[in-house]
Amino acid sequence: MLNFEFFTPTKMIFGKDTHKRVGEVIKSYGFHKIMLHYGGGSIQKNGVYEQVTASLKDAGIDYLDFGGAEPNPKLELVEKGAQLCKDHGVELVLAVGGGSAIDSAKEIAVGACYDGSTWDFSTKAKTPRAALPVGVILTLSASGSEMSASAVITNEKLGLKRGYNSEFHRPLFSICNPELTFTVNKFQTGCGIVDISMHTLERYFSKSPDTPLTDAIAESVVRQTIAAGRRAIKNPEDYDARADLMWASSLSHNDLTGCGRETFMACHQIEHELSGKYDFVAHGAGLSVIFPAWAKYVYKHNVPRFVQFANKVWDIPVSQENPEETALAGILATERYFAEIGMPVRLSQLNVGDEAFYEMAEKCTESGGRTLPGWLPLNTKEIVDIFELAK
């Protein structure tokens, strides 16, 4: 097990009707002026917006309304939000939504305390030194951004999607009411299931020494996500299934499932190029295509790890005579599950052709300036090969 630091200061407020307490929660911290950040209007249609604003008003919290967050959140909106925070003396940014609204809120909070473009942080040219606190009301179980140190943003002008970690990204509090996910459609529920699984599996499949306890936690999170995912797809208002997915979302990306392991999410890096190039590709849908292709490409470089995954997660018996057969069976079981819950498993299902494979691979490696680490290091050629496998 490698040395590690585990720091998750986010206060989790979990359960039915908890979002209606947001005003008193914010008041308890002493804030008076906040930005309310959300997406395209679903929270207005389902009544959540009215409930949240009523709670804020009852607590005497003044709020600046700022909607417009969208999938693959955009730098232009972030910079506009950051300036509004400066202009209006905002003390906290409250995100109501899923990963896109939360990541956008995190970037706004950092930008409100910086004189330049937050893209400086995405490119690692600068390191954040301060940020406004961020609060969350979660409406989609997927990204784990409600407890994570990461944020991902898209620079439309450059056609690049980049993320970075900062302790300033950790939300001050996250209010997680599984009831708010009842109306999430099958496709977005499926995208969330994939994202939860991948945040766990990318850590699990990292190049690291043995970590049996962390492995067991990760395997349990994935197994429960698979089971709860099936139930939520079948019955969208199954509270316990939605609750399991919501809690798994938080655990998958708050670093718990990677304690003692290196973390470099190669599949996420490759997928960021895909959805950065093709804005219509949902992040979870891109991951459901990329992961099986990546796994088929690299599994022979650590067969025992993939055998363990197949056995512990999918209950596939271990073949002593042909362990590679077991390893591949686990990958195929994952691919079949993604398809079962309505996710694409080939680029053709996303209407993505091979015309930009090399361009995306070059961007991913920063024109040869970096190699994606792992059991098999990935350069431009290897990433193109993975795209080919995913066709």
TrEMBL record:
It holds the Pfam family ADH_Fe_C. Residues 9-178 form the Alcohol dehydrogenase iron-type/glycerol dehydrogenase GldA domain. InterPro entries: ADH_Fe/GldA (IPR001670), ADH_Fe_C (IPR056798), BDH-like (IPR044731). Residues 193-388 form the Fe-containing alcohol dehydrogenase-like C-terminal domain. One of its GO terms (molecular function) is methylglyoxal reductase (NADPH) (acetol producing) activity. Keywords: Oxidoreductase. This is Iron-containing alcohol dehydrogenase. It comes from Congzhengia minquanensis.
